[in-house]
Give the backbone structure.
Amino acid sequence: MRNQKATTTKMVMTGLLAAMITIMTAYICHVPYGANGGYIHFGDALIYVAAVLLPRPYALAAAAIGGGLADLLTAPMWAPATIIIKMLITLPFTSKEGRILCPRNIAAPFIAALVSATGYWLAEGLLFGNFVAPLVSFAGSAVQSGGSAAIFLALAVALDRIHLKQKIMPALGMTERVPGKVKANQ
């Protein structure tokens, strides 16, 4: 029964985060740029939050669903690439630490920025048959990724202050990492 409740909680949180990612990406601070259908947004900040709160498979789903739906609503030709790229940008993060602002999660937004910029450069090159012209898109990627990193880090500080991870980890059936050992969070 406890395992079923944890699974339900993970699925509900995944759905809520996917919805928040969609809204933040498609509608809040959504700034179109360039002739390629691209846009600047800060939805990646919520993808990063999903990556530090949820176990990896659920974070991957929230990122793919949220980013994919946002593109289906605003720039459908980008949806297939976005689904893959948004899943990839969750990988540098960890949800296994007791705090959001662990060293890995502080560095992760910057690694995710490189993955995202490279992924969209490749996608644009494949979509339009030119790998030189998309180099201009790196400026927009830098703004988007930098803004998302700043928002994520600010959210992480706030969420760590209210001890969110310690409060939700038991409901998700997760354990907290303590240096040198793994401690069950009962």
Q: What stands out?
A: The chain has one domain: 2-174. The first helix runs from residue 2 to 26.
